Amino acid sequence: MNEEDLFPGLRAYLARRFGAEAGRATFEPLAATGAGPKRGGYGVPYLVRWREASGERRLVLETVRPGGFGHEDRADRASAIVRANDDYGELSRHVRVEGAGAFARGAPAVGLEDTGEFFLLTEFCPGEPYAIDLQRISRDAVLTGRDRARAEALAGYLAEIHRQPVSHPTYYRRRLRDLVGSGECIAGIADSYPPGTAPKHLLLEAEKLALSWRYRLRDRQERLRVIHGDFHPWNILFEGETSLRALDRSRGRFGDPADDVAALSINYVFFALRTRGAFAGPFAELFVLFWERYLAASGDDGLVGVIAPYFAFRALVLANPLWYPEESEDTRRLLWRFLFGVLEAERFEPAAIPVLLSRGRP
């Protein structure tokens, strides 16, 4: 859909929902601030702005791009938007939804009862992605007091949202099933590796080991909690010292806390590997600080026995040239060692990370 189709229709929708001034809104792609080594994504967000009596109003327009990762059909893409519309406002410190609807080619944007691609409007939040901090630490090789305070704030935030158990008869199994088999998780990421970049036998073995973890964990419904579901450094904004907001909650409001802990903490491993070639230096220090602060705040003694498949999923993403095209082969090889090391161990122990990286396959 080109701009001539998209923006006139959206302006009409904005005018109906927010007043006549919104009908003069402008649109511009939202720069991927702090993208660093990460590429790709499921859509291109736009900054939407207009002037009204009280000043400038800003929102963010989100859509889902047609393609792989379980987004082939319009119904797939609509599901992602509807879930976001339902779930964003249910999570503490997450950006608010301001509207949702669907585009119609050659006509004004309309409500969800009509056809067309679906869109979401959220509030615009100032701040910088946490990924910018990780890139600065990579460059300077020094941790500041703010770096440590932010790692502790992130651990505290996750412990806070994970605090209350959730009772649901099927949701825990559903999330494990999605982890292993959905288009956005292990199976879909494995299918997205460009030809020749990962031997099929490695992908097969990784999926088999992950499946064995699904059966090991499928009756652990007592671990079901409120979670974010995609808590990585590009979905976290900081403004000021430790004030944070979360973006792009994904894949459902409930799950295992290990999902969020792995999504964030593996980035400390990743940046250590790409800067030091080993689990050492400031990022190893941040990992230990975050991990210990989270365990102390959450009291989750069972985390070490369930986190392996969640780490494996994130390692598959980080090692994938489609998502991280400029990464070195040495870093990819170490990520694969980490992946198999955690899947083949009975428990995950941070102290064992150097051992996982120094031996084993590939």
Descriptive overview:
The protein has 362 residues and is an alpha+beta fold. It is 45% helix and 14% strand. The chain has twelve helices and eleven strands. A hairpin with a 3-residue loop joins strand 9 (236-239) and strand 10. Helix 7 runs parallel beside helix 11 and helix 8 packs across helix 10 (308-318). The longest helix is centred in the last third of the chain and has 20 residues, at 257-276. The chain is globular and about 65 Å long. 38% of the residues are buried.
What's the SSE blueprint?
Elements: H1 3-18, E1 26-29, E2 46-52, E3 55-62, H2 74-87, E4 97-104, E5 107-110, E6 118-123, E7 128-129, H3 130-140, H4 145-161, H5 171-181, H6 186-191, H7 200-217, E8 225-226, E9 236-239, E10 243-246, E11 254-255, H8 257-276, H9 282-298, H10 308-318, H11 329-344, H12 353-358
Antiparallel strand pairs: 1-2, 2-3, 3-6, 4-5, 4-6, 7-9, 8-11, 9-10
Helix pairs in contact: 4-9, 5-7, 7-11, 8-9, 8-10, 10-11
Summarize the structure.
The chain has 362 residues and is α+β, with helices and mostly antiparallel strands.
Q: Give the structural class.
A: alpha+beta
| Major sheet | 6 strands, antiparallel
Count the strands?
Answer: 11
Lateral arrangement of strands in the main beta sheet: 1-2-3-6-4-5
Radius of gyration: 21 Å
Whole-number mean pLDDT: 92
Low-confidence stretches: none
Number of helices: 12
Gap from first CA to last CA: 43 Å
Please estimate the helix content: 40-55%
What is the strand content?
5-15%
Global morphology: globular
Summarize the helix and strand pattern as letters.
Answer: HEEEHEEEEHHHHHEEEEHHHHH
